[in-house]
Write a structure and sequence with these properties.
Layout: E1 4-9, H1 16-27, E2 29-33, H2 52-57, E3 60-61, H3 74-90, E4 94-99, H4 102-110, H5 120-133, H6 135-145, H7 147-152, H8 158-171, H9 175-179, E5 191-196, H10 201-217, H11 220-228, H12 245-252, H13 258-282
Parallel strand pairs: 1-4, 1-5, 2-3, 2-4
Length: 284
């Protein structure tokens, strides 16, 4: 029997988790997270991590697996997911990769160019330099050292500028050189079965709105309030980009009303879902 990895993917609030639970019962499956925000041990309500009921129904892996002050590239996630997949096969279980982070899923299915792991001190130094210079000057500084990569990047894209700088600092090579390396394919003995969960737009948007309303009634305000008191999570960390966090923060700090926060968070979620739909329609 060929080892099969099931990929359950699609937009947020589309019903991926429900489909995964159905499949675990049919396949003796284990659910492996492919959502970049649900990796972190923070904001489980806001990031829509699986419920206690779902976790009881089937084993779940790579949820709340990293401290919230950490970062995780697609390559790092791929390494972790591959280990969980092989463990599942060794235990006679079927791995179910569940999530909407397209870059993660593409890295697993299509392969990924080898990328170096960046030491934390270099990553912090790159972030600090960007904050000191601002994007325009930081882009100019990058162009002086790595004109090829700088020409590819939007000077307004802070995350990608920092990534290009830190790779150059850590390896002495342009990120463009690393990206040109042949991708490392998935293991030859794996077979992929793709399940795209793509509701109609009206249904999807209704789900996005309803889910955030459910969050508001089930403790997300208290969760965010506690999160904002933490001093161990730098402002540039991925978890601070969780959908809905910014409007809820603005509400808690008195800048907008509760109703406005809900509207903004719902809009943010729908726009993200729309981008995911576009990506998955043309990928995999």
């Amino acid at each position: 029997m060929i080892p099969t990895v099931h990929i359950i993917c699609g937009p947020t609030a589309g019903g991926k988790s429900a489909r995964a639970i159905e499949l675990t019962a049919q396949t003796n499956g284990v659910v492996i997270n492919a959502d970049s925000m649900q990796l972190y041990d923070a904001l489980p309500i806001l990031t829509a991590q699986p419920s206690a009921e779902d976790r009881h129904a089937a084993p779940h892996r790579l949820y709340s697996a990293l401290p919230p002050g950490a970062t995780c590239s697609a390559g790092e996630w791929r390494t972790r997911a591959a280990a969980e997949i092989e463990t599942a096969f060794a235990e006679g279980r079927t791995p179910l990769i569940v999530g909407g982070s397209g870059l993660y899923i593409s890295a697993l299915v299509k392969g990924l160019s080898p990328m170096p792991r960046i030491p934390e001190d270099i990553r912090r130094a790159a972030t600090q330099k960007q904050q000191e210079l601002g994007n325009a000057a930081f882009h100019t500084a990058l162009a002086a050292r790595d004109p090829v990569m700088a020409a590819r990047l939007d000077p307004a894209n802070t995350a990608r500028l920092i990534r290009a700088w830190e790779v150059l600092e850590a390896t002495g090579r342009s990120l463009a050189d690393w990206q040109a390396e042949p991708p490392v394919p998935p293991p030859a003995h794996w077979r992929f079965e793709i399940h795209k969960i793509m509701p109609e737009r009206e249904t999807l948007y209704r789900n996005c709105n309803a889910r955030f309303e459910w969050m508001m009634e089930n403790g997300v305000i208290e969760e965010v309030e506690n999160f904002l008191t933490r001093t161990d999570i730098p402002e540039d960390r991925p978890i601070r980009k969780a959908l809905g966090l910014r409007p809820l923060r603005d509400y808690l700090e008195g800048r907008i009303s509760r109703e406005t926060a809900i509207t903004l968070a719902q809009n943010e979620t729908r726009h993200y879902a729309k981008r995911q739909v576009t990506w998955f329609r043309h990928q995999l």
